[in-house]
Amino acid sequence: MIREAICEGVDVESALEKAKAELGIEDTDEYDFEVLQREEKKKFGLFGGRPAKVRAFIVIEEAPDDKTERFLRDVLDKMGLPEIAIEKKTEEDSLEFNLSGEEEGFVIGRRGETLDALQYLASLVANHNNENYVKVSVNVGNYRDKREKTLEILGRKLAFKAVKTGKKTSLEPMNPYERRIIHTAVQKVNGAISWSEGENTARHVVIGPDPKAKNNRRGGYNRRGGKRGGYNANRNTNPAPNPDRVPLNEGGKTGLYGRIDK
Hints:
By secondary structure, the protein is an alpha+beta fold. Helices cover 31% and strands 22% of the residues.
């Protein structure tokens, strides 16, 4: 953050002294300045003339949590949401911001898109010129926990559907963090696999049957044309897992969008 003062004086030296006094700068402090206008004496002591003008400034290093909180406050105010409160939790390598207020739904946005954008930008601010990476989380109540459980249920449901019908299903585009939740949920269902298709904002998860899974269905048809032993006779409803299948981890372990390199 930069603090500055612009002052005028009869000459550059006096203008600079005024600016230093306004900023509370001592002779031993580090600061910088620029001359915006040099003084001009009056002609014949009567006409024209102008004072000197100087801009003095100091750079104040803010902690990642302070500058990120200030950024969020500024954005929310510009969104017309000054009543939204910000609660901060600081740890050694992570920052958590929980937003609360009457307009929480507006902050979350469609399927959390606005909230995700706030978190992404907050992470950029926190890690700008910061030597050690800080994981930033921006949440509204327990929205992210609810969203994660919803995605887990959806992934398992569509995985079982793929095993039963043998057909694949394409989901809507998601960020890497949400795609990873789906992949992990599908990986727990034997006989189903998931993969991602599309590029950038159109990248989405596809869930389908695992072609390498061993489905040990027995039975067949008897001489009368009926199913031998009934429909459920000796049927294995849980296919053996494919040993080569591993869960996809697109989002990494550093947060919603992964680490943001400076």
